[in-house]
Give the backbone structure.
Amino acid sequence: MGAVLFTACESESNRLIKVIATDQAPKAIGPYSQAILVDGTLYLAGQIALDPSSGKLVEGGIEVQTRRVMQNLNAVLDAAGYQFDDVVQTQVFLSNLNHYKAMNSVYATYFNERPPARAVVEAARIPRDALVEIMMVAQRP
């Protein structure tokens, strides 16, 4: 599977904090983790449409990039033992709000009966000049 879990213990509250990392999703392009698991809540960093094997932005329009972003997020969810049904909140950043409908058509295919709460905003610029970035929060008991 290619997942790597690092654990650390927060000293004041004795909460177990796990760093989630997998080579099935792109490596972080800055000083952040792909995800952090704390007390059953998984916080996933924003993903852009990078191909995990090459580290390059995938070519194509908003639909292609949204699909790659969701595949990257799925890899991180999977590495932590979570799935899209566990996602409770997402934040979507679009380079252009005119991409909203096309992004939604791909995004909706990943959620069944209970889509998560969500915010969508237009960002002045997304890293690597990507068209879309999505971050998530997932929760399990």
Remarks:
- Residues 3-139 form a domain with the 60s Ribosomal Protein L30; Chain: A; fold (CATH 3.30.1330.40).
